[in-house]
Every structure is written in C-alpha cells, then in structure tokens.
Amino acid sequence: MHRPGSRKHRRCLAILGIAALLGGCAATDPRTAPERHRSALLQLEQRLAPEALRYAGEATADAPPRADGVAVLGDALWVWSADGPELAALRDTAAGFARAGEAAMSAGATRCLGGAGALAGALFCAGPRVTGGVEALGASEFTSRLPPRGGFRDLALDSERGLIHVLDGVTDRLMTLDRRGEIVASVAAPPGVYRLASAGPAALVLLAGPAPHITLQPLDARGLPAPPARALPHAAPARDAVYDPARATLWLVGPEAGPPRRQDGPLRHLRSALVGLPLDAPAAAPHPPPRFMDLGALGLVDATRVVLVGRHLAVAATGSDAVAFIDPDTEPPAVTTYPTGAAPVGLAAAHGAVYVAHRADASVARVEPTHGVTARIALATLAPDDPRSLGARLFYGAHVWRSAPGDAVTCNTCHWDTGSDHRLQPGFLERRRELTRPLGGIGAVSPIFTTSGADSLAQAVEGLVRGLDERFWQSPPDHSRYWERPVTLPLGDGSERHLSPRRLREALMTFLATLPREPGPLRVGAGPDPDLLRRGFALFARDCAACHALAPDVRRPERLAPDDALTWLATRGLAFSQPGWSRVGITPSFHPQGHRVAPLSDLGRPGPFFSNASAPTLRDAVDRLRPGSAAVHGGQPGTPATLAPAEQEALLTFLLWL
C-alpha cells in the first residue's frame, strides 16, 4: 500500500504511465491491477485504425445520425447535424411534432439561424466545411462572396438591417454580408474566435480561446462593425452567450473561471457556471459586478448552450441529459431542471418554449418552463447496441466516474465536441499543465498523451476509466474493483443499457478510434493554388517530416516517400507523428527527452497551439519555426526567422490544406 504523492507511488506512475496498471503492488489496487481486457482491445484498435484516416463529412454507412442544432423559421423547425449535409424540417402541432420536409447543404453546419424582417423566409447556415462560409436556404438572391473555401466558424443575423455577420477563422476577421451575399465590411477579430452572438442592435459578442476570451464589437448606425472592440472581463473561455435586453446583461455558460486543479489527484474546478456581465452601465457610474451561479452545485454537468425564454434562461446541461430553466430575478435564482434526452447540445427559443436537439440519440424535444417535455420526436432509429452510439453516450454523459458533489466531469467537459477547450489542463498531481488537444484521427496515433504515457489507445482508455474516478486516489487504495463493475447507461428514450466492463471499454474506444480528422479549410471548395501547395509540401518534407512522419498509421513501420505522400494526401489523411519524443523549444518539457511528437490534426481550428498554448494562432506557430536549430518551434518574436515570408506562406497553405 502506498500514498498518492509518495516516492513509491510516483515511481509507479512514471514507469507505467497514465494507467499505471502493471507492477508489484496489490492486485486490487486500481493503480496496479492487471489490464484484463488489453489483448481484445488492442485487436479492436488495429481493426479500427483505417477509419481514423477518414475526413469528417465523408459518408459512412454505419455512422450513427446526430441532431446538433435546431433553428426556428416561421412556423417550421429546421434540424441539422455537423456530420452531414441533410436538414430535416418539423412542424410543432397540438398533437406533437410532424415531419415537414428535408433539404441539403454542401456540408454539415455548426450553426443555422432563421431569418426575419429583411431576411425573412431564409435559413442561413455556416460551418468550417461549408464552401464560402454561408449557405442560405430559401433565399434565391443570396450568393456568398466570401472566399470559396472553408474555415468560417459561425454567424449572427441582423434581420432588421438585412446583414449577416460571419467569423473567418483562417484570417481572424469578422466579415459582414448583405442579403445578396456581398461583403460590405471586414474588420480584424481577436485570435481564436469560435462563436458569435448578437448583443442587440449596437454590438456583437465574440467568444475566443486565447485572451481576451470575450470581446464586445460595437456596431454603427448601419449595423456595421465600428472599431475599437472592447475586451470584457472574463477569465475562462465561454461555450455560449445570449444577450438579455431587459436586464442589459450578457449571460455566458461554460467552465468556471478558476484553473482546473489536481492537487490531490482527482480533477476539480471543472464544473460549469452561469455568468452575467452587465453591458450598458454608464461609464461614469460604478459598474455592477458580474453575477455568478455555480451550476455544478446544482448537479448540472457540462453546460454548453444558453437561450432566453421569456424571463427565464434555458441552459443545456449536456452531461446531465437535461435542460435547466433559471429565473435570475429571484433570490436565490429559481432553477427548474427537466431531463430531456441524450446529450442536449442545440437550443432554440420560440412560443414560450425551448426546442432541444440531442446529439447522441438524434431527437428533438419541446420543453416548457413550467411543464417540462411536452413533445418529442426521434429523427432516426438507432441500433440500441451500436458501439459508436454507446461510446457517444459515454463521451458526452457523466456516467462513467464517481466524483465529489459538484465536480462531475465528462470527456466533453475538456474535449469540446471532441476538440479542444482552449485551456491548459493539469496532469497527475499537477506535475504539468498542457493544452487540450483535438481527438480527430487519434485512432492512428501512438503513443497517446504529450508525455507518451500510454502505448496505445487501448491503454489510454483503460487509464481513463480508472484514473478519472476519485476512488483511484483513495489511500488506502480502493479494493472494490470499481473499474471492473458494469455500468448502467441511460438512453435518451428512457430505457437503459447495462454495459459489462469490456463492453464499456469497447464502446468508448470505438467512438474515439473512429473520430474522423477535420479537413483543413483549404481542402474545402476551390482549394489552394497547386504550385503554392507543392512548395509548401516540399518545405514540410524538408523541415518537418523527420519528426511529423509521412506515415498513415504510427503503429506500423510504413512510411511514404514524399511523392507518394502527396498523392496519398489527395484523398486520405496522415498521422504526422511518430512513436518517440523530441525537444523542440516548447517548455516545460513533460518527459526527460521532451514531448511526444504531436499529430498535426485539425490545424484550421481556433487557437491556441502548442502544449503550453503559447501560440495564439497557427500563423504565430509557423512564424516561430526555426528548422535546423535547437529551438525548432521555440523562436521568439523579433529574432531572425529561418523561413522567408514567401516560404512561411507556402508552408501555412499546406498546413491549412491537411
């Protein structure tokens, strides 16, 4: 028996990595008990590896359907998925929901909004894989004049003035289009913006990963962005925002402001919070302090969306499979919570109710503040025992681990929508802090974690099942073999599935191993100039491929010659990693030999980049590149660059095409 933090405990962790699953300790100690399912999971990992090279948006016969969002347009509801181009229309009738048609876009959307006023009759959708950023269903006169590529993250509508505001994540700009799609304004946006919200007729709100996390962008009388923008005081990235004109308050949901902690081992301070920022207090008057509500203390896990419904705020608690209605005018604020379905991630308010889209069971519900769920429809029939669907439930729901009250977490708590939460997270006992990485394509990567602490995804899943549970850290060790107990998994339709320990691991690993790579924004639409792309690849092959290997699957010895690699990349992804460590000028080092060679995935995402989050944008990361030197990625602003500006542009083009 050994205490967390003792020399013996540290030695076990250092030698055996995140799981610490083998060694000379008691067989019922969760840190050292053998991995009973390792052989079967390794075989499963090998079978699933080819799917990890798939790009997001590619049709697959066995991919479970999802409902990622819902928008109100007139008397119809439109439901979309980020995975595919299909949209479904619903009617909300006295008898419940009725299907009202279908439509299709060029790619899956991350946000759709129904127009009104000067934009009436059209549904505007945006997403990083949508060519030209915005598509408008029902608006024949609209043609986006944005560049014919991807990388546009989000949009907001000004229906009265007939304007569409769009975030360009490639150039970090806020673009404004008129109702015909013409660009009428373009201003610089802070780095790493991923969400846009209206703050009434006079301002927009931009949510970002790097600081400033919240930016207020004023609008002039025409509705066009009017610099300068103003940073709002908020210490953590928010997941969503809504402006409340009656209270002159911007409401944010997302992680609590303090940094996540692991001082004694278990994860703490990852709970969700609701924050109200007053926006229109006179400059000379004392500014009212922000309002704060600890949602974790209410049992609400992983708050991802917020909308205004009358006097109530409706908050989607994705990890709790619930929506909470909050009246902030009472003291304490009155909160009513209703279970709604599996992983609620999309909200739209209309007619005194909120419509909820559920990612994990492809359903939509109508939820009313005083009556709860009053209508529900399943848009697809899911195979009840499909491992990907079960794995999605495990990823988005708080069903696997036991945590202290208020500190429950899900995988989605840190890996937002399987990506990054843009924050530094603590390693075991806070020996390190590192940026959360996106998970697309992780099934082709080995070893796992920046420390290379797991030699396979199978071992990483085993370590996660054990190590994120508070019982992993008990002293004396927990001898109940909690990690080998079956888990009862609630499904969105009210039924349950009882997963054996092996089925639980197989489901979670299947979901993770088959997460597709996000295509680069320059892979969408017209694509980059072929000569510029080839020059960028030649620079990559010369300066980067020694570490970021031209290998389809890191666990196999196969490497591709440069000519073959470029041909391969025309249709399939590469892992761009290797099983080893390297010192590249990024500090602190998490291993005596530096860091694991990181895969190059989803480089079109909002920043920051590098394990220490020191590069706010990909362009900053390229600017710091010093190939051939000890620094490698550690170049500092003002020091002579190794690559000429034209070479940097070519390399950046290649990276944004991956």
Quickly count the helices: 10
Give the N-to-C terminal Cα separation: 49 Å
Report on the biggest sheet.
Answer: 4 strands, antiparallel
Strand content: 25-35%
Oligomer designation: single chain
Strand order, largest beta sheet: 1-2-3-4
Structural class: alpha+beta
Number of strands: 33
The shape is globular
Q: From the alpha-carbon coordinates, what is the Rg to the nearest angstrom?
A: 24 Å
Description:
The chain is about 15% helix and about 25% strand. It is built from ten helices and 33 strands. A four-stranded antiparallel sheet has the order 1-2-3-4, with no helix packed on it. Strands 8-9-10-11 form a four-stranded antiparallel sheet, with no helix packed on it. Strand 25 and strand 26 form a beta hairpin. Helix 3 crosses helix 6.
List the helices and strands and how they pair.
Blueprint: H1 7-16, H2 38-48, E1 69-73, E2 76-80, E3 86-93, E4 96-104, E5 111-114, E6 123-126, E7 134-137, E8 152-158, E9 163-168, E10 173-178, E11 183-188, E12 193-198, E13 203-208, E14 214-218, E15 230-232, E16 240-244, E17 249-255, E18 272-278, E19 291-294, E20 303-309, E21 312-317, E22 322-327, E23 334-339, E24 344-350, E25 353-358, E26 363-368, E27 372-378, H3 387-396, H4 411-414, E28 424-426, E29 433-435, H5 457-467, E30 487-490, E31 496-499, H6 501-513, H7 530-543, H8 562-569, E32 578-582, E33 595-597, H9 618-623, H10 645-657
Antiparallel strand pairs: 1-2, 2-3, 3-4, 5-6, 6-7, 8-9, 9-10, 10-11, 12-13, 13-14, 14-15, 16-17, 17-18, 18-19, 20-21, 21-22, 22-23, 24-25, 25-26, 26-27, 28-29, 30-31, 32-33
Helix pairs in contact: 2-5, 2-6, 3-6, 5-6, 7-10
